[in-house]
Amino acid sequence: MIVAPSILSADFSRLGEEIKKVAEAGADWIHIDVMDGNFVPNITIGSCVVRSIRKDIDLPFDVHLMIEKPEKHFMYFVDAGADFITVHVEATKSLYRLVKEIGKHCKVGVALNPATPLCSIENIIDEIDLLLIMTVEPGFGGQKFIENMVKKVEKAKEMIGRRKIYLSVDGGINDKNAPLLKKAGANVLVAGSYIFCSKSYEEAIKKLKI
Ligand code: DX5
Ligand code: ZN
Questions:
Q1: What is the DSSP letter of 145?
Q2: 70 Cβ closer than 6 Å to some ligand 1 atom
Q3: Could you tell me the CATH superfamily of domain 2-209?
Q4: Residue 66 pairs with which residues in a beta bridge?
Q5: Is 45 left (phi over 0), alpha (psi -120 to 50) or beta?
Q6: Contact 164, 197 (CB under 8 A)
Q7: Would you call 170 helix, strand, or coil by DSSP?
Q8: Is 33 annotated in the active site?
Q9: Does the pLDDT of residue 210 top 90, yes or no?
Q10: Could you read off the pLDDT of 132-145 as tens digits, one per residue?
Q11: What secondary structure letter does DSSP report for 8?
């Protein structure tokens, strides 16, 4: 199981330190939530921040773009050092072209909001490295996990079949739902508040890996 702490719940006044701390505590990837105030209500991190934190950390950067017109902006994040760039299917009109473009520069993921069906990626599944199933409505950390999404993860696993695609879940992940999601086929857990609001990052990450 890959655990990717979402830095959205970190203390931004000590961001560098926080990232080093989760890395030392056993994080596999660092998940970076980029929000533009349009696709989702919140505004968060831009590519300058990604470039700065890249200097001190070797772990893969999993950049989750929750922005309108990702085709206009993704290259800034490639240049800033992203290893994975995930775009929302709801945010673009030309998903196939976008996925092919991103794939020329780094690993490429697609994300589905809770209400978006899996059939929306049926025709591009052979082009992606990662499928992200949102288990909350994107926009904020600390929301409640939508139980129904476990079934969606099961179906996604079936759809992926033998392809080498990471199956990631994001939103409200904790030690209670992690085993259910693992059973359903998820192999990447993105967790923000569960890790960053815990007393011991190491304990929290260990519990998610069970
Ligand atoms: C939600 C973001 C998530 C979020 C996860 O819009 O994509 O990555 O930060 O935070 P928790 O784990 O607190 O739900
Ligand atoms: Zn995210």
A1: P
A2: no
A3: Aldolase class I (3.20.20.70)
A4: 35
A5: beta
A6: no
A7: strand
A8: yes
A9: no
A10: 999 999 999 999 99
A11: G
Q: Is the CB of 10 under 6 A from ligand 1?
A: no
Instruction: Match 């330190």 to its residue by tokens.
Output: 17
Q: Which residues of 85-114 are buried (b: 16+ CB within 10 A; e: fewer)?
A: bbbbbbbbeebeebbebbeeebbbbbbbbe
Domain ranges of the chain: 2-209
Residues 73 and 94 sit within 8 Å (Cβ to Cβ): no
Q: CB-based contacts of 23: which residues, under 8 Å, 6+ apart?
A: 30, 57, 59
Which candidate in 28, 33, 36, 62 is catalytic? 33
Q: Is 175 noted as a catalytic residue in this protein? A: no
Over residues 71-85, the pLDDT tens digits come to 999 999 999 999 999
Ligand 1 pocket, 5 CB below 6 A? no
What would the two tokens of residue 164 be? 């080498």
Q: Which residues 6+ apart lie within 8 Å of 181 measured at CB?
A: 135, 150, 153, 169, 173, 189
